[in-house]
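Form 7-S
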Amino acid sequence: MRVLHQDPREGAIHLQVQNADDLWHLHNLVEPGDLVRAFTYRREEAATDKLRPERGEKVRVKLGIKVDQTEYQDFSDRLRITGVIVEGPQDLGRHHTLNLTIGDDITLVKDVWRDHHLRRIKEAVDATERPQVAILAIDDEEALIAEVRQMGIREVAVIRADHHGKMFPGSDTRTAYFTEILSKLNSMEVGPALLVVGPGFEREEFAKFVREKKPELAAKIRSHGTSQAGMAGIQEAMRSGLGAKILEETRVAQETRLVETLLEEIAKGGLYAYGPDEVGTAVDAGAVETLLVTDAKVKDLAVEDLMRRVESARGRVVIVSSRHEAGKKLEGLGGLGAVLRFPIR
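Output:
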């Protein structure tokens, strides 16, 4: 994300969407009642002498809408912002949906910019400078290619091996399998490293294949054994710290480690609190070292007050995406948990 301009007097920040993660950040930033200005397409009504005007062509106009709701469509890298038109050359008072995608820019106006709003913008800006991490989870049955993004782990492709040679009659099926995987990797931005995980020897055989076919990609491979392949293998790598040198700077890995720490404390009856009542008591006692809040919960004003008080007491606040496994686990605890400095029980 890029900040193009700020107007503190109006409470307006002009932002440019630079990647799909920025759309997810905006989905969490834009709230009902906010004013959003952006370019969009609106159909003109052609003036005629008929009783009903003819439908004119769509023209590009800049509108300001008072937001009712947002919808993030990660399958199409699109953010839909729906509301009532309050600024523009036509159709004031009517509903309209802005469809934002990568490369678009918007001006977001809020009556009050809260600390977590500004923190999210800073995180999005900082993350733009960090390269994306690619992961291949592979065994002799299936290969899953994924990207580690700020919002979570996004599946890019699944390639299945053909052990019976039906797709490649008379050919080496492993070579055909590896060739298809490499072709998919060549069509995407791998970044500075490719983390390859999975059980058995398949990942090492694939690395050998890539060294022969594309040495520059082979130099990026970091191989780590897991007990499973697929998304389960990737989650295992996240939980156990495998590939930590590659993943440690990614938001998903950091959030996963913190949620796992909280769950470990719960399992052993240690330094933890979860749910609004327990966490509130811990905050009152100044006992919170790290407060974990799901992105769905952060808009709750009572939770926002807890976040502010934790930071005032030199605690750490981490907003966890509900779109990956660790975030779903935190949602199961009520969307709110804390690792403590000292026990409160």
